[in-house]
Amino acid sequence: MDLVNHLEGRLLFAVPKKGRLQQATLDLLAGCDIQFRRETRLDIALVKNLPIALIFLPAADIPTFVGEGRVDLGITGQDQVGEHDAALPAGETSGVEEVMDLGFGRCKLQVQVPEKGTITDPKQLIGRNVVTSFTGLTEAFFAKLEGKSEKSELTTKIKYVGGSVEAACALGVADGIVDLVESGETMKAAGLKAIDTVMESTAVLVKSRGTKNELVELIASRIRGVITAQRYVLCQYNIPRTELATASRITPGKRAPTVTALEDDGWVAVSSMVEKKSIATVMDQLTEVGATDILVMNIANSRTA
Fold this sequence. Notes:
The chain has 305 residues and is of the alpha/beta class.
């Protein structure tokens, strides 16, 4: 099948073709019931149950395709969006609009220097060699440090390297680097330490400011529902009516808890969404105020305000 000629009328959705964001993105698409089969070595996949085409691109290229209106939607990192926007001419509005934070792929873009060196402050790198894959953000960071309004006036020498940035200091190419840090293991293994943070980043859903495709809101709603389901559980319990106000403060829910009268006078059943990370503490607090029959259930999917 000539896939390129089957894109007409479809929403074009750019997703990472590899790297740290890819698997979480594919899991998210599966949760949204976006059904597709990607043929080997093809970077376009037609969705079977919706008029959508998935375009597999490097995460760094997705903001460009979205910003120029070549695709309608994309999933990439905030770091990549920031790098794209930093390269825009002064005064130009970005064509990339962030729809929502997806909550995965969390990392930091940090200034790093040799652990055993004498540099402890990024100002000590002014006028020296700094290597990075994020030249736009790095130039903006050092322009602020140097008090320069134009990047062309920088005395710090920013050099671009596409990969293995952490090796630059050991090889004598750089006095410091600016690179992404997730766990910090790679940084430590390379004998480096972080001395400042340029920005924090997570995966985001972005759209083209020029898109008119009505499916954008549908897909955004589905993704929001999946993320909410991953973040929350449903907590149900029985509580004396006299303690309802106290219990409701413990489990306020997304809008308000659902309260149902029981056959046993003076008691009510309560159902409320609670963040997964807090559920153990919430159960303890409910027990202390007299709640019984506390049940916690996973949420497969959701649509919430």
